[in-house]
Amino acid sequence: MKNDRLFAITYTLLHKKTVTASSLSKDLGVSIRTIYRDIETLSANGIPIYCTQGKGGGISIMGHYSIDKALLSDAEQNEILMALQGASVTGHLNLKPSIDKLSGIFQKEVDDWIEIDFTGWSQTNSTRSDFEAIKRAIQESLLLSFSYYNNKGKESTRNVQPYKLIYKGTQWYLYAYCMNKCDYRYFKLNRLKNLHLTQEKFEKNTNIMPSLYYKEDTKEMIHLTLKIQKEMAFRVYDEFGEATITDNMDHFIVNAQIPLNPWLIQYLLGYGASLEILEPKSLREAYKKELNQVLNKYL
Question: pLDDT tens string for the chain (299 positions)?
Fold first, then answer.
């Protein structure tokens, strides 16, 4: 703990040049007396720290002092800091201490150049703690257990060996070896419940390389031809980005390959009266049947 604090003080001084003992005390959660003892320790070990009194005074480090950073070019230093910032703004990783330390080593101001939020408006502290637990399980090769809901809404208990977190499209996935199914699987994080991080270790298979082409339980694809009104343009371009979209003045004709899943009709119903299924005829009939069932509830 003390060594971490000594590093933190050094990096803070390299970054801010002059700070007060009270601000260091507040940031590091120790007494002012402890800060001054740490300063004495650093000075005794050759780090040129000095104190000045009066207005604008405080604890400073000699301007010529820097930690050796010659192994990295200026561009490489910037790339490292920007990469850490990009990872930090996902909301899942607390990398600020690392960014502050490296900016101190490199003697660079860190530009607040990016803001990303993958989490959605409804993210809870539980979601964040689950993410941290999964990250730790991957890093330390610890088994995870959780309840999982498949695309049919069926709940099952899974025990897995976690390998990687993947963000694809608009979803977070856990790639893991499922001990229940004896196979490598993708799990959507928003379908995981009651996550438990065990202390049981497993031996990782270093030859595993997850494909970024995610497949649901069904592998069957269906070709759709849809007529969608222009007021749904924001959804058309967001959700059918890789499809063939034809702009026909007051509506779009969308040709797309979509997995034939049980939720497909419910998904299309979300377009309301703005959507018409042109092809295939079988899906058009199934859609009509679903609409009649909904209508009968209000008759």
Answer: 566 777 778 777 777 778 888 888 888 888 988 888 888 888 877 778 888 887 777 888 876 665 544 445 666 666 665 666 655 555 555 556 666 666 665 666 655 555 555 555 455 566 778 888 998 898 899 999 999 987 667 889 999 999 988 877 667 889 999 999 998 899 988 888 899 999 999 998 877 666 555 444 445 788 999 999 988 888 888 788 656 888 888 899 999 888 777 788 988 999 999 999 999 999 999 999 999 999 899 88
The CATH label, of 2.60.40, 2.30.30, 2.160.20, 1.20.120, for the domain at 125-201 is 2.30.30
What is the CA angle 133-138-142, rounded to 5? 75
Longest dimension (CA), the chain: 86
Structure tokens at 243: 């499809």
CATH match for 221-296 among 3.90.120, 3.30.70, 1.10.1200, 2.60.120: 3.30.70
Threshold 0.70, pTM exceeds = no
Is CATH 1.10.10.10 what the domain over 2-61 is classified as, yes or no? Answer: yes
